[in-house]
Design a protein that fits this description.
Number of strands: 4
Number of domains: 1
CATH topology: Rossmann fold
CATH architecture: 3-Layer(aba) Sandwich
Number of helices: 12
Oligomer: single chain
CATH superfamily: P-loop containing nucleotide triphosphate hydrolases
Radius of gyration: 18 Å
Length: about 260
């Protein structure tokens, strides 16, 4: 049984009165299905905490990625937060769950797999989408099932943030995350961090650090890790049959999260 969406968050990602703000000592997981905007969120938080010194070399010092550095928790600055793409398995502490329209996730993940040389150029999008719908790509579960695992009744303290709402008002959504994590928000400092984490600034950093940053070196330089930062680009990739199959397999989560069907 799925908890009513409005009981988890406001429709625009605001923590409602039923969610307690976490103690600054409680480690919080920033969870998402891959390619849902976690790099951007980590950069904003990292720049806020570091005085706009976050980059591809040191982002794990501010918000560690469990897939890269294990079970470390950022804690030197009062923010105890770690990033994960895993589905829910057993009891968890407080979680910020970052979601994005699954169709845009599929397109971005396809580009990510090309960039990381997991698939070749002749591995077409429709073929990848079939893998995506079946959960045959990391983390070994479909996007729909990943969402449902985290939005179940027993998910624990949970704040859901939509990527599309971050695009509309990043300051408001990042403030929600910070308060949920028990941090006070300096609006001026946050605005500066958001500017330093713009897609243009991050693309420039990616270009400069591509060959030296461990997350980027060895990947294809002709495909960006930081892409467009837009919503709705799926329309350029999905034909009618592909959309029908996607909706057949991912409809429940799409509906739960309020995305157009």
């Amino acid at each position: 049984m799925i908890r009513g969406f409005l009981k988890i968050i406001g429709l625009r990602g605001e923590a409602n009165g039923g969610l307690a703000t976490m103690s600054s000592q409680a480690p919080v997981c920033l969870v998402s299905y891959p390619k849902s905007g976690s790099t951007w969120v980590r950069f904003v938080l990292g720049n806020y905490l570091s005085g706009n010194q976050c980059d591809f070399h040191n982002v794990d010092e501010w918000v560690p990625d469990v897939h890269a550095v294990g079970d470390a928790v950022g804690g030197t600055t009062g923010l105890r937060l770690q990033k994960s793409h895993f589905p829910k398995a057993g009891a968890m502490g407080p979680v910020v769950y970052l979601v994005r329209d699954g169709r845009d996730v599929a397109v971005s993940y396809y580009k990510h797999q090309l960039k990381n040389r997991v698939i070749r150029d002749d591995y077409g999008f429709d073929r990848f989408l079939d893998d995506f719908n079946k959960g045959a790509v990391f983390p070994g579960i479909s996007w729909n099932d990943h969402v449902m695992s985290w939005c179940a009744d027993d998910a624990g303290p949970l704040l859901i943030i939509r990527y599309e709402d971050l695009l509309t008002d990043a300051g408001k959504q990042i403030s929600c995350i910070m308060r949920f994590c028990g941090l006070e928000v300096d609006e001026v400092r946050l605005a500066s961090a958001i500017e330093a984490s713009s897609f243009e600034a991050m693309r420039e950093l990616e270009k400069k650090q591509h060959d030296s940053a461990k997350h980027l070196s060895g990947t294809r330089a002709d495909i960006r890790h930081v892409r467009e930062g837009k919503a709705g680009t799926w329309r350029d990739y999905f034909g009618d049959d592909a959309l029908d199959e996607f909706m057949r397999t991912q409809r429940v989560a799409m509906s739960l999260l309020g995305y157009d069907l």
